[in-house]
Amino acid sequence: MKILLTGANGYIGMRLLPVLVESGHEVTCVVRDINRFKPSPDLLDKVEIIEFDFLKPEDAVQNFNNRQFDVAYYLIHSLADTKNTLKEYELRAAGCFVLVSLLTKVKQIVYLSGISNDEHLSSHLTARKVVKDVFVKSGIAYTIFEAGIIVGSGSISFEIIRDLTEKLPLMIVPRWLNSKCQPIAIRNVIYYLQNCMGNEKTYFKTFEIGGPDVLTYKQMLLGFAKERGYKRIILTLPVLFPGLSVYWLNLTTSANFTIARQLVKSMKNDVVCKEFSIREIIPQYLIPYKEALQMAFERIEQNMVVSSWTDSASSSLNRLDVSQYIEVPVNGCFKDRKWTEIPKDQVETVANRFFSIGGEHGWYYADMLWRIRGVLDKIIGGVGLSRGRRSKVDIEAGDTIDFWRVILADRKNHRLLLFAEMKLPGEAWLEFAIVTNNNRSILKQTATFRPKGIMGRNYWYAMLPFHFFIFRNMLKRIAGKK
Length: 482
Prior knowledge:
- The chain is α/β, with parallel strands linked by helices.
- It is 37% helix and 21% strand.
- The protein has helices at 11-22, 41-44, 60-64, 83-103, 123-136, 156-167, 186-195, 217-228, 242-252, 257-266, 278-281, 289-301, 347-355, 367-379, 453-478; strands at residues 2-6, 26-31, 47-51, 71-74, 108-114, 141-147, 150-151, 170-173, 180-181, 184-185, 205-209, 215-216, 233-236, 334-342, 400-401, 404-410, 415-420, 426-437, 440-451.
- The strands form 5 sheets. The chain has a 7-stranded parallel β-sheet, sandwiched between helices. Strands 14-19-18-17-16-15 form a 6-stranded antiparallel β-sheet.
- Strand 1 (2-6), helix 1 and strand 2 (26-31) form a beta-alpha-beta unit.
- Helix 4 runs parallel beside helix 5 and helix 6 packs across helix 8.
- The longest helix has 26 residues, at 453-478.
């Protein structure tokens, strides 16, 4: 079949793509920024890529005219910060997707949404229901799956549960942790998405999908703790405190403020399946929550996390176009340049050190100060350090490293370029590179800051003392000169 896969660089898209390709389908991936789409080289050779923003329907004819697809997957989701903009973005993107589907003579639309069978829905779930209504009225055969919590290495739900459980021995939580949900393993979700293609029993139908367990969020946290061998105490307050909960999630987990707000609003709703017809149409073994956790950690321990929720633009606070930051600016910038000579036979070892920077590995020097900076960033609504890394060893353009975004990861030429996604009065880059000439190998470390106004300049001068000893000692340790 000819498949149109939107959201191909998102968490679900990156999991579904290899399954579709390995099944022999012709897959065309649609991404908003081609520079952030980094599948494995063997997959890249087997797919076509279209760079297109579904919020710009005026470009649809130019990008999709004279094309034809059998099935189109809609794996796009907006996380705008207000109810009005959220609904507006969802409607515009869904309407554009229908336009593209009609232009390309799509026979079946497949949409992964959230369970929305409660009477009083959050704006987040309401917006997803709005998208569903657009597809139902499109006249095209649709298959809609509504899932609750998706459990898998790298999923936002899994990572938030992990953050809370690992960091907090005692949790005093609002009553929304008593809301019920029906977690489903990522492997089960992908199986449904794959096996509904061309299956006429799924046409013009909406299915609720969940695993075999119905749990409260509190039970999920305690179940995670038990699986990892932690002793955790969770005390539930009889009130909601939605505003405080947003800040709590933002400060203690990898979710930024916008995502935390949407999650808290949604967690007041029970997300439990009320119909189970999909189990007869596409039968499969439904993985229990405990087993799904075990599988997720097996992937993590083997450094085999294929995708993370941070791969998508929604993990940052801006619609970041990576391509515009590859060339570090010169004019109007402050720069902190440091370098040191390294033995030629140590080039690969030194490069591996800076390619593994951040996450659990840390920043080689003054990790406590980096953590304090991360906490301060969280307090003012930034992403903080808690996003970590997708993998301890692998790194690709588009990945996140704590509050940095990887712009370039060139192992062949030993160059790593990071762009700051923390809250700053300006823009910042951090670059590591190894240059070899005249039988000498030089490790170069460059911090670049482009200030915005007087606040930006004052920020740079205030940080100079920290740059002096942090960056100097970081360079020495990366070079192996402790």
